[in-house]
Write a structure and sequence with these properties.
Oligomer: heterodimer
Number of strands of chain A: 0
Number of strands of chain B: 10
Number of helices of chain B: 6
Order of helices and strands of chain A: HHHHHHHHHHH
Radius of gyration of chain B: 20 Å
Strand order of the largest sheet of chain B: 1-10-9-4-5-6-2-3
Largest sheet of chain B: 8 strands, mixed
Shape of chain A: globular
Number of helices of chain A: 11
Mean pLDDT of chain B: 92
Mean pLDDT of chain A: 91
Distance between the termini of chain B: 64 Å
Helix content of chain A: over 70%
Strand content of chain A: under 5%
Structural class of chain A: mainly alpha
Low-confidence stretches of chain A: none
Low-confidence stretches of chain B: none
Structural class of chain B: alpha+beta
């Protein structure tokens, strides 16, 4: 029996499973832009879809991810790790590292969704802000480096990825600002209410 | 925030830091080429044998047939290359001149190996060698005698070849120094041929 309310969660598992298929992996990893700006975000999205209310209750997220601190710390660190050229190279070359990539990013997506539902705005702003500037900085480095940083990818693809990372970072910033400005006063009051 | 949340946050932070530290070799290296060089400098790697055919058409077993008392400086090319490989070979031509003028032929030998064995057969290698004025006594230019050994050879050296636009190939170009026992002991930037030669001589002492 398939429960309608669990369909997004199933879809999340299906998405990650599909991304993990060798053919799909090879296709997305043949180019650095597809690898870093399509595959990695999709794994995170898959993790987010998985994190429906039932599963979050099963894992008792409310107990150990209060304020979303655990989720934000994990997600930020994982995002940094998978932006390093060496990690990207290793993921392509070594199956164990590739498995760790899928697992860590999937969990990051799961915890991130849980964190976003209960984090106070300042905390959310702090972690998202950090991730945004780090992503943009790495993007600028990828664009300015005259050396190939990944053995698995060429210089053109590296520069394109750098541009993509900056655009991706700016998009997150814009979406977040739009999100808070549409209910800023409410969120702030809720924050003060909940955490005096 | 309750105690459980603090514990979970701290745990997650520690796991993340450990992972990052492990991936970057203690926050020292951020790209795999630097990691490869650092690794070789710390722990020399014995290169497993493979068979080459050189510019004179001789079959040579690498590294056994290259003399046990000579250091080797090895680089990788393919003859169709119209960018970095030609620079590499020009640098080797200069190194060869240095070996002649400083009479270092007994101590150091240069080896250029093609990673495109299907295209670079004995004849192509021979004409390439003539263009580069190589002297087989000082500078071996060779291709794999058995192309099926290509992946094993690239893996042994840590070379990654990827396709590039216009049918070209791209690889992590570098100069690989092997000692008399056929162990790779150092890797240098392809721009640093002079430094590589100087330090290879220092290793030989």
């Amino acid at each position: 029996m398939i429960d309608v309310e669990h369909i997004p969660s199933y879809a999340g598992f299906a998405l990650i499973g599909a991304l993990a298929l060798p053919a799909v992996r090879n296709w997305l990893e043949r180019d650095m832009v597809l690898h870093m700006l399509v595959q990695l975000p999709l794994i995170v999205v898959g993790g987010m879809l998985c994190a429906d209310a039932t599963l979050r209750r099963v894992f008792k997220c409310a107990d150990w991810n209060r304020l979303g601190l655990t989720g934000f710390i994990w997600a930020t660190m994982v995002v940094v790790i998978w932006m390093l050229p060496k990690s990207i190279d290793d993921a392509v070359a070594k199956p164990i590292i590739e498995a760790m990539k899928f697992l860590s990013l999937g969990i990051a997506g799961f915890l991130l969704r849980d964190a976003l539902t209960r984090a106070p705005l300042p905390l959310e702003g702090f972690f998202l802000g950090n991730s945004v500037w780090m992503m943009a900085t790495v993007g600028l480095l990828y664009q300015s480096s005259e050396r190939r940083l990944c053995n698995a990818y060429g210089l053109d693809s590296q520069v394109a990825t750098g541009r993509g990372l900056v655009i991706f970072a700016l998009t997150i910033a814009v979406v977040w600002v739009w999100r808070i400005s549409s209910n800023a006063s409410v969120s702030l009051l809720q924050t003060l209410d909940r955490y005096p | 925030v309750n105690a459980l949340s603090w514990a979970a946050s701290s745990l997650v932070f520690l796991v993340g830091i450990s992972l990052a530290g492990w991936f970057t070799d203690g926050f020292q290296v951020f790209d795999s080429e630097t990691a490869r060089r650092l690794h070789i400098a710390r722990t020399p790697v014995a290169i497993a044998a493979f068979t080459l055919v050189d510019q004179s058409g001789r079959i040579l077993r690498f590294p056994d047939d290259f003399g046990h008392d000579r250091m080797l400086i090895v680089d990788f090319i393919y003859t169709r290359c119209n960018s970095i490989c030609s620079v590499l070979s020009n640098d080797f031509e200069r190194l060869q001149r240095a070996l002649v003028t400083r009479e270092l032929g007994k101590q150091v030998h240069l080896v250029t190996i093609s990673f495109d064995p299907l295209h670079d057969d004995a004849k192509t290698i021979a004409s390439y060698a003539t263009r580069k004025h190589s002297n087989p006594a000082l500078w071996t230019i060779a291709s794999l005698a058995d192309p099926t050994q290509l992946q094993a050879m690239l893996k042994a050296f840590g070379i990654v070849v990827i396709p590039a636009p216009f049918g070209q190939l791209e690889h992590n170009a570098a100069l690989h120094v092997l000692d008399g026992q056929g162990r790779m002991i150092a890797i240098y930037d392809w721009q640093d041929a002079e430094i590589a030669l100087r330090e290879t001589l220092a290793f030989a002492q």
